[in-house]
């Protein structure tokens, strides 16, 4: 556990990340391990199918999260990154893909896809990644927070907005522990988001 006032403790946590965490934009070597996210599975996926088609644009994110680096956030917040490890693509692209996969997996929408897929769109799901990191300002935990806005594509009006957030204790600060915790938190966020969308369309 890292206390806010324990500067040496914070240095120990950062040392566990590889003895030289990357600052944004300073990575010079290709990562030796790439990590992905799993799509959520809704236990209540059975039910009446909707005739709606939903477009999922690329999520917005601060530059600190708009990269393939796996973020570690101390109090401040101060962003650092795991060396020699990365997401399989830029984080917004990974999140976008998993939202699409989760919604498609419900089997209750006529169509879900990316811009350019040729859908006859009824709704757009506009999202913003606000947190997607291992927090080390207390008990180490994966934190995922995504703001979502469902927009009627025919008239441009917002149907509903919601912020989805989940935290999962990681049990440590290794990259494998961080990714496992982030996958668990993301699974909860994607599942809650899909259930919310199915209630609105």
UniProtKB/TrEMBL annotation:
All copies of domain ABC-type transport auxiliary lipoprotein component, residue ranges: 35-194
Entry coiled-coil feature ranges: none
Origin species: Roseibium polysiphoniae
Bilayer-spanning residue ranges: none
UniProt-recorded name of the protein: ABC transporter
Gene3D superfamilies named in the record: ABC-type transport auxiliary lipoprotein component
InterPro entries: ABC_trans_aux
């Amino acid at each position: 556990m890292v206390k806010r006032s324990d500067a040496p403790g914070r240095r120990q946590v950062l040392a566990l990340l590889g003895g030289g965490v990357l600052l944004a934009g300073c990575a010079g070597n290709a990562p030796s391990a790439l990590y992905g996210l799993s799509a959520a599975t809704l236990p209540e996926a059975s039910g009446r199918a909707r005739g709606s088609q939903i477009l999922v644009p690329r999520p917005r994110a601060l530059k600190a999260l708009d990269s393939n680096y796996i973020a570690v956030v101390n109090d401040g917040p101060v962003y650092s990154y795991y060396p020699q490890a990365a997401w399989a693509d830029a984080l917004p692209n990974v999140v976008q893909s998993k939202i699409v996969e989760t919604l498609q997996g419900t089997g209750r929408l006529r169509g879900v896809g990316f811009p350019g897929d040729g859908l006859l769109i009824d709704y757009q799901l506009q999202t913003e990644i606000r947190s997607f990191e291992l927090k080390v300002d207390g008990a180490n935990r994966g934190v995922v927070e995504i703001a979502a806005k469902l927009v009627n594509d025919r008239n441009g009006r917002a149907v509903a907005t919601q912020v989805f957030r989940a935290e999962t204790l990681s049990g440590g600060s290794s990259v494998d522990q961080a990714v496992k915790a982030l996958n668990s938190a993301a699974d909860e966020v994607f599942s809650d988001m899909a259930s919310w969308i199915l209630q609105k369309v």
